[in-house]
Amino acid sequence: DAGVIQSPRHEVTEMGQEVTLRCKPISGHNSLFWYRQTMMRGLELLIYFNNNVPIDDSGMPEDRFSAKMPNASFSTLKIQPSEPRDSAVYFCASTFTGSSTDTQYFGPGTRLTVL
Amino acid sequence: AQSVAQPEDQVNVAEGNPLTVKCTYSVSGNPYLFWYVQYPNRGLQFLLKYITGDNLVKGSYGFEAEFNKSQTSFHLKKPSALVSDSALYFCAVSQGGKLIFGQGTELSVKP
Question: Which chain A residue's Cα is nearest to B92?
């Protein structure tokens, strides 16, 4: 079975540009999570969806960040405009129901560098 | 608020020796605890979780973890370390389906 798929794996862009990260969850999973990993802040949850509906976006840093899940097999995280402090590894994860006991399965991540 | 702490930034172990990576937690209600491993330039891989029941949880790659309610700990263990176990290890607690991670512990196993 394919795991969580993320694209691109690496993204280098210049400050002010729009960046779109993509995620395909594991087939049959109903919950999807976006995390960000930095040296300073560690791993932090940005937003999560259940049945394609955003449930909690309290971790989204500011209005420059937006996320969508138009269907059960695709989600995007967009940063517009990007800033150097957005440089991080962004992970997508999915799970069956989103309950506290479910195991989250992570994608390989997208390493974003904003110059 | 729920949280986890990993008191050691780095753990060094000789190959063949037992290893322990420490984790303590602070939760209200039932603790649902997880361990993940991250190899360089890779995503997080699930190792094991504690939901309820037996305090000793067995997981992937020979790892196990002991849940201790009185000490609010969930330490990761392995009887005999391998060089290939060298990686970054994360403890996490689940709150409303969201994972809250510790800061991570870098495990280095030397031959």
Answer: A43
Q: A-B interface: how many C-beta pairs under 8 angstroms?
A: 56
What angle (nearest 5°) sits at the alpha carbon of residue A109, between those of residues A108 and A110? 135
CA gap A93, A106 in Å, rounded: 4
Pairwise CA distance, residues B28 & B47, whole Å:
24
Please state, as a whole number, how many other Cβ atoms lie within 10 Å of the Cβ of residue A46: 19
Question: Hey, is the C-beta of A102 within 8 angstroms of any chain B C-beta?
Answer: yes
Query: For residue A70, how many other CB atoms are within 10 A of its CB?
Result: 9
Q: What is the mean pLDDT of chain B?
A: 95
Label the pairing between strands B73-78 and B64-68.
Answer: antiparallel
All residue ranges of chain A with pLDDT < 70 are 1
- How confident is the model at residue B40, as a pLDDT? 87
Task: List all residues 6 or more positions away from B53 whose beta carbon is below 8 Å from its beta carbon.
Answer: none
Average pLDDT over residues B65-76: 96
